[in-house]
Amino acid sequence: MTTPATITPSSAGFEHEALFYRDDETFLAGLLPFVREGLARGEDVLVAEPADRAAVLREGLGADAAAVRWLDMGAVGANPARIIGLWADALDAAGAAGRRLRGVGEPAWPGRHEAEFAECRLHELLLNTAFDGGPPWQLLCPYDQARLPRAVRTGALQSHPVVSTPEHRRPSTAFHREAAAAAFGTALHQPADGVLRGNYGPDDVQATRRTVVSFARSVGLTTEQGQLLELAASELLANSLAHGGGSGTVSLWATKDAAVVEFRDEGRIPDPLVGRLAPRPDAPGGHGLYAVNQLCDLVQVRSSAEGTTVRITTWR
Description:
Blueprint: E1 14-21, H1 24-40, E2 44-49, H2 51-61, E3 69-72, H3 73-76, H4 83-96, E4 101-105, H5 114-131, E5 137-144, H6 150-159, E6 162-164, E7 169-171, H7 179-184, E8 196-200, H8 205-218, H9 223-243, E9 248-254, E10 258-265, H10 287-295, E11 298-304, E12 307-315
Parallel strand pairs: 1-5, 1-6, 2-3, 2-4, 4-5
Antiparallel strand pairs: 6-7, 8-9, 9-10, 10-12, 11-12
Helix pairs in contact: 1-2, 5-6, 8-9, 9-10
């Protein structure tokens, strides 16, 4: 087996590292020493991997696998906007137990949709925003160098301060802390045609909801999918009317594998983490977007001086 790179954790701050692997051998060469070092130090070790990758790591760890907490990233990370909240909860639990957290998380696995990869990149960028300046912990994010698109691998270099292979570990020269804000403010790609679009205001709530329900039915969503889409759209419509200037535009379209609903208004969201962390009960905002993130297959939020766009996708 390839000799692993030396892992040298510091005691301060959040350490966010991308591990590039080529096959099962290099996957294990990079992860086994990282996980076992955490166990030897008495840290809380949480691994969030797709099922096939988790099976490889479990086998490689042998008896040590029982001391690790496992999450199926294919389920908990299906919508990447949910993942930061999971790490925040794990960090709180480790701190309450007087231990340090060490995590492995692979949100960008081969076979994901292009829109999901875009949200994985934003998620990885926002991890630094969410945890820099907080309690010290480590997160190692594996990337399949052989099967992932080049753009995804390039994005990993931009979102991780440290990059490694089983042989080498170095600072990423492509990493920029300002990239998260820039990505959050970059407009989403718009479809060229086949879009149903209309304006809404305070008097159009029921009509907009009926349009979403009719759209869901017309593109073949199940009853449950249609109900979840209607509920999410209702939350976004209420948010937009309350915080987005009182009016906006709703767009609906279908692709070969998805139904998409998008709300746009002139409001601006100053916090790119909104909806990713569970809001306090007494918090003045953030409840609606958090609920939408729990309801939808994929949620994409972008906001700048030009306004805010929230796009929700249901896979067919």
